[in-house]
Amino acid sequence: MVGAILLQKGGKDMTYRVPEIDGQKIACPSASGVDIKRNQVQSSNFRRTSTAKAQGTVVDNKVSIKMSFPPNITVAELKLIKSKTCDKTAFHKLGFTNEFGEWETITVYFNNYSLQQYGFINGKMLNQSISFEAVEQ
Q: Is 28 exposed, middle or buried (0-12, 13-18, 19+ CB in 10 A)?
């Protein structure tokens, strides 16, 4: 697991922090393995008119994140990710380095833990892709 990666922001050095779930560090995602989406939440009166014009107000913005991991993460790292994303706890704290290089912590529920198995080689299971999605509460 990589602990920190040096990045540049506006000519200044900054450090990438690996994601955390409930304050516990998880494996470092793959290169291009963090997909952050910021979605508007419309008010209950948001609708389209008979001429298809949108009306209403935006009440908030929520984050959804998909994190993908390299196939060579350790069994312990894989078990930690699965234990946090597939348990019966409704909400968790997810900390991550956002698109501005800043640390952001949000309350999320997890969705779509996914693991694509490649097969067995020399008695060892090889995974091709591992990912999960988190949606802000």
A: buried
